[in-house]
Amino acid sequence: MSVLTNFSSLFLSAFGTTLKLFAFSAVGSLILGTFLAMLRVSPVPVFRAAATTYVGMLRNTPLTLVFFFFTFAYPLLKILKLDPDPTAIVALTLYTSAFVCEVVRSGINTVPVGQAEASRALGLTFSQMLASVVLPQALRAVVPPLVSTMIALLKNTTVAAGFSVQDAGSISYSLSEAGADTLVGLGWVAFFFVLLVIPLTLLQRSLEKRWSVAR
Amino acid sequence: MSSVLFDVPGPRARFRHRVLAVVGVLGVVGLLGFIVYRFADSGQFEPRLWEWLQYETIQIGLIEGLLNTLKAFALGAVLAMVFGAFFAAGRLSEHAIFRGPSSVVVEFFRAVPLLIMMFTFYYGLPQVGVKMTPFTVVVLSLMLYNGSVLAEIFRAGIKSLPKGQTEAAYALGMRKTQVMVLVLLPQALRSMMPTIISQLVVLLKDTALGFIITYEELLYYARFIGSQGQFGRPLVPITIIVGAMYITMCLLLTLLANYLEKRNRRNKKVQTAVPVEDIAPAGATTGA
After folding, report:
1. Residue ranges covered by each domain of chain A
2. Cα–chain-centroid distance for residue B190?
3. Which residues does UniProt call coiled coil (chain A) (predicted)?
């Protein structure tokens, strides 16, 4: 307990950074991932191929390597200078968007073809069909796995600690510099993560249960 | 590709698609061109940055790094499977004494980030006198995290089987272990195989976290090469090479998963097509 009270400001700022990384990369990856999913289901082969290549590459690369690239190699290309925090957000966003894309795409594919055909037969326009027939049904299949992806993202933010971001993963570094008990400190970090993850897990399970019955 | 969303295109839609295709090609070419331009402009194509690849010691070093990655992956995968099977059995147990603790263990290790686990073993435990090599830490953490995820996969696989399978097996007079080993597991394993393999891909990617706790795997060696002034600090080339290695390894595993899934689907067809012949001799032997 003394570790937590003595270093409360450290814990607060570190978990604040973690939540900031999470929030920005969650929004970013949802937008980018949905955009990629649009490309992947589009009728234009070039768009599909581009998005497929992107997803295939990013999904099969370790997140650590993405961070490695953006921390060490990217600055050498002299495109746009980024601080450690934005670098982490970019890496997390690019990595997670590939997974979001897959979730959204497979969600759209769960909607039976007949639904779209029927709405076309009724004379709905493309946007009407998307908004009132396909997307409401796809959403049921998309949201529960999307919550899982977001849980993974929340846990993945800790990787940034290995690349000089002062987030929750870096608490152990600061504690050992101050000569405090790292084991207890890390125990608290783990505890807080469990505390953050469990509500999300419960949300995901209840959504899955409710919507799998409704389908 | 037939998609849910689009009708077969008519002449106007085909024209629109062609225009969009041109835009798409221009976009992709533009992006690639920009990347190549940045590479050329920042001098990444200089021969000095790539020449080191010809040195034998460096090639051997890269292979050693790769082997260390694979070593952690192999041991981690085997241990995670064992861990997963053990705790899945615990969570499926009829006794609350086994079910409760296994659930707590599985949920806990799934919720804690892998890197925090590694830090705890590597920086935390030495304070109470438990020192471990980075390799042990990586393997142990991979086992705990991926084992817990695998436990959930195993459990879901067993649970997804029709209840009649268990009931029929009990009705035949099988014991609990027999029901599990002879009836449930063979069926569940087949349907779980693709999911298990994609979790193994995750495990393989997670070995790269060992870099942060100085396990001498592929990325660690990449960092070492990238800091060599005599080769002009080839961080960009080495990242590309290591990335290609990881992507190849993961794609090979994914291909295996896809192959198994395809074979799986074929098998199911066979199963539904010829069940009568399968059942008849079995019934005959039990009758005799």
Report:
1. 16-168
2. 17
3. none
